[in-house]
Amino acid sequence: MSEQTTVKEIDALRREIEHHEHLYYVMDAPEITDAQYDRLINRLKALETEHPELVTPDSPTQRVGGKPKEGFVKVAHSRPMLSLDNAYNEAELRAWADRVAASIHRNETLEYVCEYKLDGLSLAMHYEGAGHGAAHLSRGLTRGDGTVGEDVTSNVRTIRSVPLAVSADKLKKAHMPQTFEVRGEVVMPQAAFIKMNEERVRAGQSPAANPRNAAAGTIRTVEPSIVAQRRLDYYAYFLLVNGEFLLPTQSETLEALRTAGFKTNPYARTVATIDDVLAFIAEAEARRDNLGYEIDGIVIKVNSVAQQKRLGFTGKAPRWAIAYKFPARGAVTKLLGVKFQVGRTGKLTPVAVLAPVGIGGITVARATLHNPDEIARLGVKIGDSVAVERGGDVIPKITEVVSDAQHPRGDVEIVFPSRCPRCDQPVLREEGEVDYRCVNASCPARLHEELVHFASRGVMNIEGLGDVMVGQLLGHSLVEAAEAEDVPLEEADAASEEEPTRAALVHTVADLYRLKAEDLLTLERVGQKTADALIEQIDRSRKAPLYRVLLGLGIRHVGERTAQDLANTFGSMDAIMQASVDELKAAEGIGPIVAQTIYDFFQVKKNRDLVEDLRGQGLQFTAEKKVVGTALAGMTFVLTGTLPTLTRDDAKQRIEAAGGKVSGSVSKKTSYVVAGEEAGSKLDKARELGLAVLDEAGLLQLLG
Ligand SMILES: NC(=O)c1ccc[n+]([C@@H]2O[C@H](COP(=O)([O-])OP(=O)(O)OC[C@H]3O[C@@H](n4cnc5c(N)ncnc54)[C@H](O)[C@@H]3O)[C@@H](O)[C@H]2O)c1
Ligand SMILES: [Zn+2]
Q1: Which of 644, 642, 639, 648 is CA-nearest to residue 678?
Q2: Does residue 429 belong to any structural domain of this protein?
């Protein structure tokens, strides 16, 4: 290859990789699988190894992660949070071990700690001294670009396996000081991932590609209550003090973390040879499908920190550790056909029907095809053989069409239906839109999704009103209702006499509030207890706050955050309904498109009728107005001493109303210390750290 073609290829690869890194790290919405991404980056690495003169400092091979997302406070790490180099097979693993051995003195023992490579994102947790010799969680940071992370403390605090405090007793047992830093991995368990995606799809949002992206997106959500619902988990693996490892070995580190009350992965093991490592890998692969969380490989670390120091780092990864990556789980199978699902917004989603094939312990018979653009990109036809991958994710994805002597091409074009598969009304694709939609506002598929969305967790929280029950309320027999949703039935249920389809019990969301236990008793397999419980749940939902009612209406683009902004700004359903596009646009957090969508929604008579009907049923239509400013967003204040006019509480309230935070202790991360008369040790500490100190006048000036 000529130098010039190489330069061109490197250039093209870098641009392509940057595009995908942006989607992955910043948007949390990758378009290609990790295996595909790894192929690109490895190709680039290979070219750069051949042509070291073409390596530039801004090449994606030289950087750890992505840019931190806008909107979070950025904080420098005590020491860089690095990535790991990868080995994809035994030979690469042995080559790494040989390089390690070369730097070890002859009489020294060499040990490896094998740990699962949890497929999540790394987070640094900082603890500081609290009362009674204990330590408390003061800050949680994402890896960010490796040098600077994002402060996600309030979200991290919702993770159950992250201790908010460590007692003096535990610190003593673990031989740990009061100020320390723990690094580990946040993961989203598979069950939580599946649930979250179901909710997203129902709300008309695109599903997250894999648990790792779901965890990354969740940890960077602005709403801690959403984070709390997602059931994230945290496994600790490093322990630092002032940016240095506290203990002389990795195995002692894991032990100390466990003693101090952190969750560590139970499968970690210290071994002496690469053969032991290979045995560990084999065991892990066998266990992989039954863990309940995703692992995408094994991390092997040199146990001794002294040896680690000698080995040092390359640009973006330690030489003393390596990630052995499991091969992507894929298979080739045949595309038998395409089904079209109709969503809540009427959107038609093409679903590939595949000849069933086993991948990583599960049978895959369906894969998403996303939208017409994706079908065009793949160039796929019915009858084609397709490569299906399930790499670190649960939703299988078609990555490419396989075409060779054994796999002749299919020849049936995938055509979107011109009529809705549920209601037989016309399907349209609007100018500039990717998706086809059913135009019928009363399409039963829409009503079905509306009801499920309305009842779902995080919206009106009506337990017991899931897909199958909604199907039954809409007049389907139990078997039909379950089949339509691909829900496996208990055998006894499936075998039950099939009842004919009957009249629907509800025709609008508001009809839910008119249901009586007697009505429900007429449904298959619904007894008195189930019926009473559901009625009680529905009744209870009348108390759900205004923003949830707004969410429940299922207005496009209106998610939890926007609904809260609307409720906080306008304070009532009426004010929102009467607001002009300009008034909506002026509200905190609401852009022009969203404003227009909300306005349009309330112009439709059917929607207004529904709202009035819900009002009649006693739902919450008002909320307290709350205005949170942004003047001090991202800043942390510590108050000390007595201010001339403001009380502590006043000052705190005013700072918080302007979007700032007030903390009780001074640290490097404090933005300002506000000091009054008789300020004590906090002021000394602020001076020591060289922090900005304000008096009351200075604070008032900042508040504007
Ligand atoms: N699909 C896409 O478009 C796309 C784009 C960019 C990156 N990616 C993917 O992102 C990954 C690259 O990210 P990366 O830099 O985090 O590298 P990595 O995932 O290959 O390895 C490093 C990370 O492993 C994690 N880890 C898990 N268990 C660990 C343990 N026991 N000890 C230490 N660390 C542990 C840490 O978070 C660490 O930062 C690759 O898997 C790549 O495929 C995909
Ligand atoms: Zn329809």
Answers
A1: 642
A2: no
